[in-house]
Amino acid sequence: xxLLTDExxxxxxxxxxxxxxxxELSRASIRYFALALRDENPLYLSDEFANAMGYPSxxxxxxxxxxxxxxxxxxxxxxxxxxxxxxxxxxxFRTIRAGNDYEFFRPVLPTDRVSVTWxxxxxxxxxxxxxxxxxFVGSVGRFYDxxxxxxxxxRETIVLQPVRPTQ
Length: 167
Description:
Elements: H1 6-12, E1 16-20, H2 27-37, H3 42-45, H4 47-52, H5 64-67, E2 93-104, E3 115-127, E4 133-144, E5 150-162
Antiparallel strand pairs: 1-3, 2-5, 3-4, 4-5
């Protein structure tokens, strides 16, 4: 069975979605994220230290901007996930994060209101070691502050793998 059709490619490749945060990131969010990482870097926790290092306030750990769902406005799905997800093949597939490549352009501040535009760039069907095939989804998220300045880029590969091997 083939997962990828010309119609599926035409319907999805190039598709964009945009999300805007309703509020500023906040010091609390930065602190909670740093604590979850067990990262006690004073740049993330102390305005005084961050000021001494030349920043206007605490800054966020670099991956926070691409890993938080601060811009999400949805109800969590059945697994508790609230972030962006391409719903290409809806049933009978598990989603596996296969890799991310990040670029960061400036530290994110508590006063930043983050938006992101996701673009689906590629769909590729490949053989699975478990038998059958699986779908590799390549997309890019571009994260901006509320002035439209680029904060970060996240190139992400997701694998949609059939729960049961396709024949």
